[in-house]
Amino acid sequence: MAQAKPQIVFDPWNDPKAKPLIQCRSITKRFGDFTAIDNIDLNIYEKEFFALLGPSGCGKTTLMRMLAGFETPTEGKITIDGQDVAQVPPNKRAVNMMFQSYALFPHLSVWENIAFGLKREGASKERIEERVAEMLRLTRLEKFARRKPHQISGGQRQRVALARSLAKAPKLLLLDEPLGALDKKLRQDTQFELMDIQERTGTTFVIVTHDQEEAMTVASRVAVMNAGVIMQIATPADIYEQPNSVYVADFIGDVNIIEGNASVDKSGPEGAVSIAYAEGQDPVHAVATTPVTEGARVFYAIRPEKITVSHKPDPDRANHAFGKIIDIAYLGNISTYRVELASGKVISATMTNARRLERRAFTWEDEVWLSWTRTAGIVLTN
Amino acid sequence: MNLRRIMLIAVPYLWLVALFLVPFLIVVKISLSTTAIAIPPYSPTFDLAQGWAGFKDFLSQLSFDNFTFLTQDDLYWKAYLSSLQIAALSTLFTLIVAYPIAYGMARVPDEWRPTLLMLIILPFWTSFLIRVYAWMGILADEGLLNQFLMWLGVISKPLHIMNTPKAVYIGIVYTYLPFMILPIYAALDKMDESLNEAAIDLGASRLSAFWLVTLPMSRPGVIAGCFLVFIPALGEYVIPQLLGGSKTLMIGKVLWDEFFSNRDWPVASAVAVVLLVILIVPIVLFQRNQQKQQEAES
Predict the structure, then answer these.
(1) Which of A293, A300, B101, B102 is the most buried (most CB within 10 A)?
(2) Which NCBIfam families does the protein's record reference (chain A) (predicted)?
(3) Contact: B203, A121; criterion CB under 8 Å
(4) CA neighbor of A60 nearest in space, from A249, A224, A251
């Protein structure tokens, strides 16, 4: 049977027959009377690059430490590859962890650090030699094998930590803020390197991070966490375009949130709603993906780059608002305009700077029209 | 180098010259003299008034006889050996007692640590002599320890600890324990807890994680602690004198006897000089350890 197109989409989470590698069932973790993790359900599939994203203290590290075995859930069940791991101590799990501080053994050389796990499982000498050499090659550290951790740079240490945690070929690799200690430029390069290594080794990665850009770049799916609860699990694109709550919309990237009362718009397409948000202002015309009751309080979330700024309202777009530019943030490739509407509401709009700066069309105090389409934003009820 | 810096460095060096080098040279000089029934009880004495000829005469009277004497009487080398043995063994015992305490202190919640550190240092607030005397009361045949054990019914007749080397070991371990605990605690406290977790994560058991990671990480502290106990224990006088009885031979006691019982200042000085030479080896090793540790940290 000839296939028209090779299957390149990786989405086991949409396949009801796929068996998750890791299943968390109603996991709760309490420290005293503080609930760090509150009744979480989570499936992670083989070969996934899964990101736990959230602000510090949201429970993402606790969740990761439960997967590693350093914490036990107060309630609920974790299975890895079908096996309940409640009674399996961390040193017996096919799970390895890359620590935020890297936790390299300072008294051992790079080579000995990478060989540490292999020696513990009693691998033969040839096997250790071969595997360590392979890891050194994978992380481009061959030249530094004999050095001690304090004799190499931060970026190299990060790679040693990665090589060490991959050496035992774990089913699951946990990465706790793996790039947190690197500077911005190195971090970006390392993100791609991480993705490359994940792909080549075929290991399932779970990364914990508070950096949304990092999570969006590397992960196949992202779980946004807040206060011990998972707010949303979705692909980076869906998290960005289809946030399910104001919290997620606000946490990922920049967003304008317009709060108003919804009324069903019979003249528009299916699901069309009008959101009245200020006296004397045209209501926002939007399409709700979930049914909205008449008169319900809703939040309309729209990304700045989805709004255009112009001197005249754009007739092709359903929504228009008139206002005055109060601030311009020039970032080189793009500029963000902060426009104050008559009601006092401030809306951000981003435009690419296709023209040179001196020929820029708008400046401070200019009166402008903001326009956006009916489907540009998203209607949220919570 | 400017004057300011020279001055700054000169202060501690002048201090050392005045309070260590000069007295030491006097001791060396006495060790090369012979006993005399006089004040001071040795000759020759140095007399500036006689000028150059007097100085040459003075030099010609010095001799190494006292050092030769130390090798002829087996009392001395036996005392040195016994001191080395007692110092080495009690250093080992101190380490065995101190390590778990330091380990525990480094693992308790942060708010407990100042209190525990305080408790370790607290004994220094009372006189060392009084504390050693207190041990006499505890270890004696009719002392607290024996009474307690007999009351418990563990033993039927008193244990004979007082005036044996056992009492000296107990005294040294007790006295020098803080010097062992503090450097080990400092090393363990600095250690990142995630190192241990990393070892366990990579498949090590708790015990092998301790053996392969925690112990090597605390090694500089262990070495520093051992020297801090061994060096003063080697020349210890008060503890063997009060707790060890007449049969415990230690060089500190021999030194005292030569000075005050025999009034043989030259031989006593020779004993002291040899003791110092023996101590130089561990002191140099200790310095090298400290230096290496500083280099590793920088």
Answers:
(1) B102
(2) potA
(3) yes
(4) A224
